[in-house]
Every structure is written in C-alpha cells, then in structure tokens.
Amino acid sequence: MYGLGLLKGLSVTLNRFVESYTEDVRWLIKRYAKVEFRSSKDARGTFTIEYPEQQVIMAEEFRVNPFLVYDEGENGEKNIRCTSCGICAKACPPQCIWIVRSNDPATGRPVPQPAEFYIDTDICMNCGMCAEYCPFDAIKMDHDFEVASYTRSLKNKEQLMKPATYYKSIRPLNFAREEAARAEKAAAKAAKA
Amino acid sequence: MLWNDLGAYFNPALYAVEERELMLDIFEAVSGSRMMCNYHRFGGVVRDIDPASMQKIKDLVFDRLPRKIEEFERLLSENEIFVSRMKGIGYLSPADCLAYSVTGPTLRAAGIPYDIRRAEPYGIYDRFEFDIPLKHNSDLMDRYLVRIEEIKQSMRILRQALKDIPEGPVLANKPTYQIKVPAGEAYGRVEGPKGELGYYIISNGKGNPYRYHIRTPSFVNITSVEKMCVGTKIADFVTILGMVDIVLGELDR
Ligand code: SF4
Ligand code: SF4
C-alpha cells in the first residue's frame, strides 16, 4: 500500500518524541545522573546536555592547553620540575613554546630551571606532544576547557604553574603510573650505588 | 546532509549524530580529543585503549549500533517520498564513473566492485571477511543502499576485530616526534567512507616533506555532478549534491 513506508518511518519519529518526554520524567529528580545515562549504550530520550548546568563526563585523557607542574616543598616553596631542557619546544608542531634558560647569578653557570617560560595558548593546538616528550613529567595537559578570552593569551611561567596535587586530581591513573616508574628508577639507582 | 536537503528537516541527520556523539566520546577517552585525535605515532599508537572504553566499544558494536541501524532503515528505506525522490535520479554510467575517477559508494552503485581494501589490501584488511556491497542501477537510491550496506559490513569487520584484538605493547620503537625519511617519493591510499583517500609525499631526506599532496575523494567525486545533473530537474540538484556526500574541508584543495 502506498504510504505504508512513510507511516513506518513516522512511527520511529513518534516513538522518539514520546521517549523524550518519558525519559525527562524518569530523570526529573536525578538530573545529574542523566548525563551518565546519556553516555551509555542505552541512551534514550533527549540527547542534548544542558551546559553549563550539566556537563559531559570528562575523560582522563582529555586535553587542553599545557601547564607546568611544580612540587610543593615543605614550607610552601614551589619546586618547578622543568629543567629547561627545551625538548618540548622542539617537539611542539606550531612552535608556540619559548623558554629562557637561567644562569646562577654568582657563578654564571647555567642552572636547570627556566628563567622564563612562555606558551602562546592562542597558537597552541592542544596536541599534547609537549607533555608526551618531556622527560621530567614537568609539562602536562590541563582539563580546563573554558579558555575563551577577550585578549591574546600569552601565558608566562607564573600563569602556567600548577601544583602536582592538581595534576593528580585531574589525571589520577597517569599520575600513579608515572610515580611508580619514578620510584622504580630511583630504586634501581639506589641499588647501583 | 542528504536528508536535510530532501526536506526531512534535521530529524534523521540528528538521529545519526547521536550515534556519532557516542563514538566521539570513545575517541575522546582514548586519544584525548574528539576530532584532532593525534593518536598515531611512528611505529604504533600513543597509548592503549583503557578497559572502560573497550567495554563501551563492545557495547556499541554488539548491542546498540545494530539496533540503531535497523531503526534507521525503518525510518527511511521504505519511505515513499524518499524513494520517489531517489529512484532513477542522478544516473552516471559506469564508463563515466571511470572517466571522472569517481570512487567510493558512487562507483560501487554503478556495478564496479572497486574497494582498495580488496584491490590493494593494506593494514590487516586481508584478514577480515567482508563483502563489497554492489548495486547496478547507478542512481541515488542505489548509492543510498550501498552506503547502508557498507555500515553493516563495517560492523562485521569490527566484530571480527574485537574478537581477536591482541594484548601487548602499542608502540614498536622508541617514541619519536620526527623521523628522517630517505629521499624518494611514495603514494599511500586507503578506502575512506567517501572513496579513495591518498597521500603523496616527496622527501628529500630531511625531517619535513619536500612536497605533500592529499587526494581527497570529495574533491574528485564532485567533478561528476555536472554529468549527473544534465537533464534532471533543478529540484533534483540538491539531492544529487547531497548524495555525492561532500565534505568542505576535502573540497578546499
Ligand atoms: S617542560 Fe619538560 S621538556 Fe620542556 S623544557 Fe621543561 S623539562 Fe624540558
Ligand atoms: S599542546 Fe602541542 S601545540 Fe600546545 S604547546 Fe604542547 S606541543 Fe605545542
């Protein structure tokens, strides 16, 4: 019969239409659990996530804009992990990292700490190469994606520095893995000595 | 795209976007970014798939997507408006397909079983069992049916891949961000959803390529639009264009 295929198609649409309401009622109270459900294989009903009230579940590997990790010392000093080796600046495809090495004012010898560290986050394409190739786990990718701004955002060392505890909070698995690798290395070194 | 052009305003397209969204969620969990995955490295990939994502992939492939494809077919394949707008429209003879270097579903709907995964198997495609969907009328309806069938074949490949996916290291050599390629030239091609996607590189022995060209399927396929359109109604133009399935990023060569 002519029109049967049409009705068949429309039944799908109607089903979806009804579902979008029944699902809304089902999640009326636990609106935040709905996001989890929407990302699962059984997702039904309205698919849109109402940002900023709701947010998608952020994956650990999600990456935007790098930051510099520092370890907190006992009396609050910031021990930056970066040794200004420059590998990240070389690996960076759009070349948006600038590092100024520092010298000891007394002896004039270079010290393994950057005097200045700039990342032009407007040019940065969030590829994650710098974090991947840094041999000291000193530069890592952030989770903070709300980076819109009215001005150019060239970030300097102060703005880029974030504590290791923050890094642990956003990437617990990676952090644990790196800590384990470091501990192993230290143990191997101690055994040798 | 096409369904939008046909006046089924946004509904079918958005239903498909839901599934795409779930897949992109997996991309994001595995590689860190939805679109700019940056997942491949020289000699492997950057990291292994985590167990949670693996489970999600399996859920999608074995459970959700078959259901959704079925729903999709129910929605569209027999729809009279849809069929009458597509049957017999946009004919392109097999000879013209070859003359215009058309690849992908358009070529296969013209009865030419050309798929690089079979013609010149790359990767591990020689290990999978799959059919090349083939139709002979070379009109829009056939191109649509070929595409739907291709989704099912892709699912079949995925099921085989998921069954046999091995454990082990994901990167063969030491991670490097740049490699020195010996001087010379190379052309590599894969079968994309829209046709043959080829990369042509000339190296002069330095770290960066000397010349680099991408052969995108959309760019080549769209040249055949004229041939398909001549003699049809103006209103059919949008349908034909929609069925070529262009991506503007690929057209901008
Ligand atoms: S962030 Fe890492 S790779 Fe970059 S200069 Fe510092 S130590 Fe080297
Ligand atoms: S994420 Fe990529 S583009 Fe951004 S600073 Fe790091 S290497 Fe450069």
Give a short overview:
The complex is a heterodimer of chains A (193) and B (253). Chain A is α+β, with helices and mostly antiparallel strands and 193 residues long.
Structural notes for this entry:
The complex is a heterodimer of chains A (193) and B (253). The mean pLDDT of chain A is 86. The radius of gyration of chain A is 25 Å and the shape is elongated. In chain A, strands 1, 2, 5 and 7 form a 4-stranded mixed sheet that branches. Chain A has a 3-stranded antiparallel sheet with strand order 3-4-6. Chain A folds into 2 domains: 1-57; 66-192, Alpha-Beta Plaits (2-Layer Sandwich), CATH 3.30.70.3270. In chain A, a hairpin with a 6-residue loop joins strand 3 (97-103) and strand 4. In chain A, helix 6 (164-170) packs across helix 7. The longest helix of chain A is centred in the first third of the chain and has 23 residues, at 4-26. Chain A is built from 7 helices and 7 strands. Chain A is of the alpha+beta class. With 253 residues, chain B is mainly alpha-helical. Chain B has a single domain (2-172, 228-251), classed as Cytochrome-c3 Hydrogenase, chain B (Orthogonal Bundle), CATH 1.10.645. Chain B is 49% helix and 11% strand. In chain B, strands 3-4-5 form a 3-stranded antiparallel sheet. In chain B, strands 1-2 form a two-stranded antiparallel ribbon. In chain B, strand 3 and strand 4 (195-203) form a beta hairpin. Chain B is globular and about 60 Å long. Chain B starts with a helix and ends with a helix. The mean pLDDT of chain B is 87. The A-B interface holds A 2-6, 8-9, 11-13, 16, 39-43, 47, 56, 59-63, 90-91, 125-129, 132-133, 141, 173 and B 11, 15, 18, 21-22, 25, 28-33, 36, 38, 46-47, 50, 56, 59-60, 63-64, 71, 74-83, 175, 177-178. One iron/sulfur cluster binds at residues 82-88, 99, 134, 136, 138-139 of chain A.
Structural class of the secondary structure composition of chain A? alpha+beta
The level-1 CATH class of the largest domain in chain A: Alpha Beta
Largest interface: A-B, 34 and 36 residues
If helices are DSSP runs of H or I spanning 4 or more residues, what is the number of helices of chain B? Answer: 12
First and last CA, distance of chain A:
87 Å
Question: What is the assigned CATH homologous superfamily of chain B?
Answer: Cytochrome-c3 Hydrogenase, chain B
Share of helical residues of chain A: 25-40%
CATH architecture of chain B: Orthogonal Bundle
* Strand content range of chain A: 15-25%
Count of distinct strands of chain A:
7
User: Main β-sheet of chain B: number of strands, strand sense, barrel status?
Assistant: 3 strands, antiparallel
CATH domain fold name of the largest domain in chain A = Alpha-Beta Plaits
Structural class of chain B: mainly alpha
Q: Would you state the CATH class of chain B? A: Mainly Alpha
